[in-house]
Specification:
The chain has about 350 residues and is mainly beta. It has helices spanning about 1-15, 125-130, 145-150, 185-195, and strands spanning about 50-55, 60, 70-75, 90-95, 100-110, 135-140, 155-160, 170, 180, 220, 225-230, 235-240, 245-250, 255, 265, 270-275, 275-280, 285, 295-300, 300-310, 315-320, 320-325, 330-335, 340-345.
């Protein structure tokens, strides 16, 4: 009994000496910084709606343009009006011929035209313009200086008077010589038949990007434009704010296409003062289409004074020595004698 009591007392004593267990320490507060977000990838540049553009209009296209332009001499005497096919041209040049009558060089590449004319004869300055474009040249007859230029430069041409009549037709509703017509398809076929070079020595204007807003243009307001040539003959343009284009006038009346009735339009108008000189009693002229010279560029309701010069095949507008971009679309080039009056409002 005594032994049991001793054991119990020892156990109780041992329990009384036991230290309470320490509470575990809280873990240290170690802050791990959140990972920095990776920089976002730059926004990809928007791809153009079309990979290519027509060199003479700046309008986008899905295929590279390799076909040679066609430059056609179109008459502008009163008995030739209204003309056909001018509304389908990429560029139209208007220059005085004999007397008080102008003539057009209508240049086709981005569009086809089923009726173009009336076609008339060639002068050397028209040939110079077509040569710079490396175009197939279409006309009916010539002056001696003009055909000399064609032969000297080995230009590829179609002359209805001398051997190429099958690429033209006559319209019985008009009298000769104001009734001769052609179309782009006939000329393309003729180029194959005559084994003319297919490769084009490309030339192009400088354009604002197609499909993008044109930057604000500063200059003289030009909602209406009147360009005086000679002896009362003048052309005009009126700006269509909604379309952003100009409607063309002839002697104050709408200048329309004969077949479609559509009024002719322009996205760019170049008015170029050039040296003119009468050469003979018939009234044939020399006209300087090389430059440099003074002039105006009219776009988007605004007119700016420019200098011009033919470089790399094309007559180009410059301001302070830098080529000025054109608005994508059709361009009309009015080449007038020096001192001709140009009115804008």
């Amino acid at each position: 009994m005594v032994a049991v009591m001793i054991v119990l007392s020892l156990i109780i004593a041992g329990c009384g000496n036991q230290q309470p267990a320490e509470e575990p320490e809280e873990p240290a507060d170690i802050s791990v910084p959140a990972p920095e977000p990776e920089p976002s990838a730059p926004e990809p540049e928007p791809e153009p709606a079309h990979p290519f553009a027509y060199p003479l209009t700046g309008i986008g296209t899905d295929e590279e343009v390799k076909v040679r332009p066609i430059a056609i001499l179109v008459e502008n005497s009163p008995r030739a009006r209204p003309q056909d096919g001018l509304h389908k041209a990429d560029v139209v040049y208007e220059i005085l011929a004999e007397g008080d009558i102008t003539r057009f060089v209508a240049v086709y590449q981005s569009q086809t035209a089923d009726v173009i004319g009336p076609v008339r004869s060639l002068r050397p300055y028209y040939a110079q313009i077509a040569h710079g474009l490396d175009a197939l040249l279409v006309h009916a007859g010539w002056s001696q200086a003009a055909i000399n230029y064609v032969r000297d430069h080995k230009m590829h041409n179609f002359d209805q008077v001398y051997g190429d009549d099958k690429y033209y037709w006559r319209d019985s509703s008009r009298k000769k010589p104001h009734n001769l017509y052609t179309k782009t398809e006939l000329i393309r076929e003729g180029a194959v038949n005559k084994k003319y070079r297919e490769e084009w020595n490309e030339v192009s204007f400088t354009f604002y990007p197609d499909g993008e807003p044109v930057p604000a243009i500063e200059g003289t307001p030009a909602r209406k434009l009147k360009v005086n040539y000679i002896a009362g003959y003048h052309v005009g343009y009126e700006y269509d704010e909604t379309a952003g284009r100009y409607n063309r006038l002839l002697l104050g009346e709408p200048h329309t296409d004969k077949t479609s009735g559509e009024q002719l339009k322009a996205d760019n108008i170049l008015v170029l003062h050039a040296k003119h000189k009468i050469l003979d009693d018939v009234g044939r002229r020399s006209v300087d289409v090389q430059g440099p010279g003074e002039g105006y560029l009219i776009q988007k309701g605004v007119m700016r004074q420019i200098t011009w010069e033919r470089k790399d095949g094309l007559i180009r507008p410059y301001i302070d020595g830098k080529e000025v971009p054109l608005v994508p679309g059709q361009t009309w080039v009015q080449i007038v004698p020096e001192g001709s009056k140009v009115e804008a409002e």
